[in-house]
Each structure stands twice: as structure tokens, then as C-alpha cells.
Amino acid sequence: MKKNYFFNLAFSEFHVHRKRFNLTALGIAWGTCSILVLLAFGQGLKDRLGSVIERVGDNIIMVRGRRTTRSFRGLPKRRWIGFNSEDVSLLKNSIPELKYAGGTYRNWGQKAIAGKKEAEIEITGVDMGYSKVRYLIPLKGGRTINKEDVFNKRRVIVMGQEAAEQFFDLNNAIGQVLLINNVPFTVVGVLQKKEMAVTFGSNEAMKTYIPDTTFAALHGNTYFDRIFISLKDSDDAEYVKSRVRKLLASKHKFHPEDEAAVSFRDTMEMTDKLKNVMMGFQVLLGFIGGITLLISGVGLANIMYASIKRRTKEIGIKIAIGAEPAQIRKQIVAESFFFSIAGGCMGGIMAFIIVALFTGMTISNKALQFFMNARLSFGVWIATSIVLVIITFFAGYFPARAASKQNPINSLRYE
Questions:
Q1: Do 47 and 73 reside in the same domain of the chain?
Q2: Half-sphere exposure (CA, 13 Å, Cβ side) for 127?
Q3: Residue 179: beta bridge partners?
Q4: CA angle 90, 92, 95 (to 5 degrees)
Q5: 238-245: which pairs have CB atoms within 8 A and are 24 or more residues apart?
Q6: Are residues 260 and 280 in the same domain?
Q7: Which among 6, 97, 141, 329 would be 20 to 30 A from 229, CA to CA?
Q8: Are residue 256 and residue 282 in the same domain, yes or no?
Q9: Which of 341, 342, 348, 357 has its CA nearest to residue 381?
Q10: Domain identity same for 239 and 339
Q11: Where are the beta strands (DSSP E) in 204-340?
Q12: Contact criterion met (CB below 8 Å) for 358 and 42
């Protein structure tokens, strides 16, 4: 018997009962489309959050000196621990797991004037590597603090968007002069706004940055406000924190177990939580889509059972004239696979159209923009196809098995 005999037989059956075939295939298509669209939006959201998370910071740990809570080697408690460039050098030379270490200065409420506009701003003194690890990206035509700025103690400033908008039109802010406490600074860059930011204490879009050497020269600071370190591998975070505490405790003579003397904040914990939430969200979407597809499979099984019931006499005649039970099963399973192929293709096309329409839309709402990057990945398509084949097989197999076990004498009497 030819291999395609059963598929030809199934095709002939569907040609006779087009309405039943179309409605059943549409149910399979809806289930397939649902799971593909849900997972496409989940994947798009994951991709968007992934790019946002990357811009939070490059495996950053912020280290800040506090007051001791324990006396140590004759020194009293409540001593303030301050860090300077020697501490940065110590960490760089002692911890090979670090990719970057640098201190920052900071002053709030600095009077700034540009023309007739006046406001108070926050100034942060940074080195040339800070912008890279914090993913501070300038708008077109601008730049960040570089090596020459630091070495020559240049009076240049890089501004967050909201800070710059208080004084200038963003289109021509580069090259403008901003007076800060009557000291002129040239604007060399305006930063892009981050969709998500670990601010470490203030609104990042309102910050301004100048070379740390310039800051120290103008304000006479010898101690950093905090130290930022970037790790080569995020898995080393806990070890590095422990190592930093021990090194600084030895240098500044405070108890190595005095956790209040040095505080840590890092970006890894937040990004790990976001990744876990995103993974859970994808699983939930997949589960909802899978349930929809499963319901479609149950509907297919019911249709097949109803079809077998209607064709009881036909099946009895085939068995009576010598058809093997396996041949009956193959025909019914072939019919269910026809539903699967037709419904799967229709569902895939529907999902592609829906995703294309949504990704082509322009939406101003920032929250909804996260869902506008839906992506139908090849892996999701393959996984859905495998699930659909499995559901289709069982939806056709059990009715087929019931049909193959019919008693031909009773089947011939069926009206």
C-alpha cells in the first residue's frame, strides 16, 4: 500500500466535509497563534529589558566610607572613614578581578548661570573611565570626559538631559558656557536618557560631570564621595566585597568585621532580580499559550470522536472486508495531522501578521514601548511545532484506537 494512501484518503474526507475541517483548523490556528504571539511579546520584552539592563552599569559595586561602630586597637568607635586616590590604587593593585576602579567627588546645590537662566545643580567629579563603566552615552555631537580633560584639569562639563534643559536648547547646547559659582565651564556633551538607571542616590538625568582633577583643584577636596569598581565577572561580587573590606580595614585601621564602616551597593543584585522576573514572565506567557493550544487539542479530539461516531457503519464495512486495525488507526491519525498542518500554518501566518503590525506601530507611551519589540524566534517556532505535533498525535490516536476496536457486526447495525 502506498505511503501517501492514508493522507489522500484523509484529504478526500476533508473535501467532503469542508465546514467541519475549516472550523476545526481555525481552532488549532487560534491556539497556535496565541502561543506564538504571547511568546513573541515575551521575547521582545526580554530583549528590550536585556539592552536596558546592560546600560545600568558594567558589574558595578559602589564603595562608600561610613563611621565605625567598634573600637579597634586603641582607636575609638564612630571614626569617619574617608577614601582617597591611595585607596583606589590599593584596590587596583591588589584585586585582579577588577576591571575598573575610580573615585568620584560630588557637590550639591551649586549655583549655575547661563544667560538669564539660573538654577542649582549637582556636580560630580569623575575620571576618564567612569563614563564607560556607567554607560553614559552622549547625544550626537557631544562627548564624555576624556584623558586630556583630566590631565590638563580642563573646565569642561558633561550634562544630563534634564540638567541641560534648564539652561539650553538641547540642539545647540554643545559649546555653550555655563557659569558655576562664577567659574566658566564649556559644555562638551549632553547625555542620552537611560530608560532604567541605578542612580546611587539621585536622578541621573539631573547630574553633571566635570574632570575629577578640576573638581579637586576648585573645591580643595582630598577625599572621594565614593569609589566605583567594575568587575570582570559578576560571579566574583561577594568575594570582591570581602576582599575590599579587608584591604580597607587594614589600611584605615578599623575592625574587618565592622560592616558599618564601609557600605556597598551593586548593580548585579538588581539585574539578577530583573532577569529572574523576566524568566518567570516568559514561563507564564508560555503556560497560558500552552493551555490555549491544549484546549484546541481537546477540541480536535472531540471532533475526531464525533467523526468516528458518524462513520461507525463505514468503519465496520472496512473491517468486515478485511481492513486491518492498524490501517483504520493510520487513517484517523492522518486526518488529525491534516488539521495540525493546516491549523499550524494558518496560526503561524496570523502570528506573523499580528507581530508585524505591532512592531510597525509608533507609540509614545514608554511603558508600552517595551512591548513593541515582539520577535518571533526560530526556537519558539520549533518548540511550538513540536508541542502541536504531540498534541495532534494524541488527539488523533485515542479516537483512532477506539475506531480500530469496533465490532464490525455491531457497527453494521448502527443507524
A1: no
A2: 14
A3: 113, 184
A4: 95
A5: 239/97, 240/61, 240/95, 240/97, 240/98, 241/61, 241/266, 243/94, 243/95, 244/61, 244/63, 244/91, 244/95
A6: no
A7: 141
A8: no
A9: 348
A10: no
A11: 207-211, 226-231, 262-266
A12: no
pLDDT value of residue 30: 80
pLDDT in tens, 223-280: 999 999 999 888 888 999 999 999 999 999 999 889 899 999 887 777 777 778 878 8
Asked whether residue 233 falls in the same domain as residue 278, the answer is no
Boundary (domain end) residue, out of 266, 286, 307:
266
Contact 102, 188 (CB under 8 A): no
Q: What is the pLDDT of residues 269-291, one digit of tens each?
A: 777 777 788 788 778 877 877 78
**Which H or E run contains 381?**
helix 378-404
Number of residues that this document lists for the chain: 415
Q: Are residues 279 and 232 in the same domain?
A: no
Domain count, the chain: 2
Taking a C-beta distance cutoff of 8 angstroms, is the pair 144, 138 a contact?
yes
Residue 308 corresponds to which cell in the numbers above? 468516528
Which phi and psi (to 5°) does residue 63 adopt? Answer: -115, 130
Residue ending a domain, among 239, 266, 293, is 266
Domain span at residue 332?
Answer: 5-54+272-413
One-letter identity of residue 329: R
* All residues at 6 or more sequence positions from 220 whose CB lies less than 8 Å from its CB, including other chains: none
Q: Which amino acid appears at position 185 of this protein? A: F
Query: Which of 51-65, 252-266, 342-356 has the weakest average pLDDT?
Result: 51-65
101 and 242 inside one domain: yes
